[in-house]
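Tokens in:
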């Protein structure tokens, strides 16, 4: 499955958003992110901002459980 997330921030000197899935490595992402979801599992994603000086903002976490419907 898929989920779409829209990010926003009032971070001073904003440079970019970053995402980390399931305690993986941080990577830059846009303000609109499409997430791939594993079925019957809790999918965990963490987002943060990075400013122009390379300083990371606070982390924001989301957990999504995806249970596809059976036909």
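Residues out:
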């Amino acid at each position: 499955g898929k989920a779409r997330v829209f990010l926003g921030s009032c971070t001073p000197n904003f440079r970019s958003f970053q995402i980390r899935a399931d305690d993986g490595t941080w990577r830059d992402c846009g303000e609109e992110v499409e997430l791939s979801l594993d079925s019957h599992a809790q999918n965990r994603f963490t987002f943060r901002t990075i400013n122009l000086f390379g300083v990371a903002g606070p982390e924001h976490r989301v957990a999504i459980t995806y249970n596809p419907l059976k036909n």
